[in-house]
Amino acid sequence: MSVLLQVQGLTKSFGGNRAVDDVGFELKAGELLALIGPNGAGKSTTFNMVNGQLRADAGSIRLEGQELTGLAPRRIWRLGVGRTFQIAETFGSMTVIQNVQLALLSADRKVFSFWRSAADHRRDDALALLAQVGMVPQADRPCSVLAYGDIKRVELAIALANQPKLLLMDEPTAGMAPKERNELMALTKQLVKDRGLGVLFTEHSMDVVFAYADRLIVLARGKLIAEGPPLLIRDHPKVQEVYFGT
Ligand code: ADP
Ligand code: MG
């Protein structure tokens, strides 16, 4: 598979604190890459530089060769970098399918004031997206009545509406029971393989990371200390030190 995301020399300080320090890695299309590390390691800061919420002090971030650093978040989103949030966000009073139709409106550059027409907008495409996340049976229910795991599925469909090449997921399974968590990750993995999507995700549960990630990168105090397939990382001495203090 081709290289989708290439990060080199990425650096960001807050005051005197180097939150991200000369970090480099690559992510291929069709790959599920986990970014792990203890609290404060620099995971969210890295994410926020990739999606443009934060400006890097130094380094480059390229999507299929195109430089993203310095571009506005909206432009980066247009180029194909999608994201989901740690706390799933949908419009509770709207139905599942309306939420996806609204995302399609936005992806089509229709302005938000046209939201009233969302009810008619690309209903079949919205249904196709809901089929991909297994939410067709709940299409006409308001999001406010859904179980949390189902809201996360809708959120995935919303992110897919813009046809991202790269999806950033910051702790996608936070607050989920093990069964929901496994379902969400299995679904994500399937989307990655079916669509050739690249996914960069952070995750606290090592069970999830080892079960689903194709590859891991490990940050500690802003530095990339290890990278490789799950089995190699688990026994890596630096990772043992950071996680278990051995
Ligand atoms: P992680 O997501 O791995 O827990 P973060 O990227 O949130 O880590 O934070 C990395 C470091 O940068 C921490 O020391 C944190 O306190 C600091 N930091 C993060 N965001 C800010 C900010 N907006 N202002 C000041 N310091 C920040
Ligand atoms: Mg974080």
From TrEMBL:
Keyword Cell membrane: yes
Record-linked SUPFAM superfamilies: P-loop containing nucleoside triphosphate hydrolases
Entry keyword Cell membrane: yes
Entry-linked InterPro entries: AAA+_ATPase (IPR003593), ABC_AA/LPS_Transport (IPR051120), ABC_transporter-like_ATP-bd (IPR003439), ABC_transporter-like_CS (IPR017871), BCA_ABC_TP_C (IPR032823), P-loop_NTPase (IPR027417)
Domain of life: Bacteria
Residues of the signal peptide: none
Any one GO molecular function term: ATP binding
Pfam families with a match to the protein in the record: ABC_tran (PF00005), BCA_ABC_TP_C (PF12399)
Keywords linked to the UniProt accession: ATP-binding, Cell membrane, Membrane, Nucleotide-binding, Transport
Every ABC transporter domain range: 5-246
Identification of the protein by name: ABC transporter ATP-binding protein
Organism: Pseudaquabacterium terrae
Lineage of source species: Bacteria, Pseudomonadati, Pseudomonadota, Betaproteobacteria, Burkholderiales
